[in-house]
């Protein structure tokens, strides 16, 4: 990490120190990142490996519904699908987590009891993040009390872009504390951060504040997840582990809709951070429609017959 990598992040306690550290990180070669991501995206895998990749991708899905029209019935149906993605084939793995708004956590917790599937909730005034800190902490505490095992928080992008890194850091620390035993995923909304340098800074900021995962996007702003942005984040978690010994997960979310997309991300993980991250514990795919395509491609590989989208339930 160069000179910045020699600084102990634990000693950074003031805004100026934090700013000096983040702006001391090596700049991202945007052209190089784009070219590497594009090159890795062209990698092909053998049919036998594809079958394994599909099952791995299914097990990494955070199956998501984040709409104002969400109902308890819709959440229960999504939970049932997450636990048994293809009821006709018990060999299909369950998903990693179901992701819902805080007021739907209790419904999801009841539906998922005994399944081992995580219950993720987008607390902290998702997707804008524009709410008083007290409201964000109350949102988080309620979700955890209702059964959330994972909290997906959004950072204050306005504060970050204004250079108020200490405010963002302190909010992440406070939400992490409110999470208790629940894991914390920190969402950057990379489409609003604009530059890869900002993505790298946000990654290090979130990790040193205690994030268990760093996440690209809410899925509500374009562009959402992209391969180059995810590459920058994967490099950050790799370098962070080298410096601190602590692993942090990565979750691209938004716009990942096809099996081909998912496989590209798995290749990116393996070639950038390494195989240690190729597990649902350290890599997730935030998606609402991806699961159906994975199931269709899985059915085609196992039977030779392509089942149309009507064969599987709609998300």
Automatic annotation (TrEMBL):
UniProt keywords, alphabetically: Lyase, Schiff base
Domain of life the protein comes from: Bacteria
Keyword Lyase belongs to the record: yes
Reactions it catalyzes: 2-deoxy-D-ribose 5-phosphate = D-glyceraldehyde 3-phosphate + acetaldehyde
InterPro entries: Aldolase_TIM, DeoC, DeoC/FbaB/LacD_aldolase
GO cellular component: cytoplasm
Pathway in which the depicted protein is active: Carbohydrate degradation; 2-deoxy-D-ribose 1-phosphate degradation; D-glyceraldehyde 3-phosphate and acetaldehyde from 2-deoxy-alpha-D-ribose 1-phosphate: step 2/2
One biological process term in Gene Ontology: deoxyribonucleotide catabolic process
Molecular function in Gene Ontology: deoxyribose-phosphate aldolase activity
Keyword Cytoplasm applies: no
Enzyme Commission number(s) of this protein: 4.1.2.4
UniProt record similarity statement: Belongs to the DeoC/FbaB aldolase family. DeoC type 2 subfamily.
Record protein name field: Deoxyribose-phosphate aldolase
Species annotation: Actinomadura macrotermitis
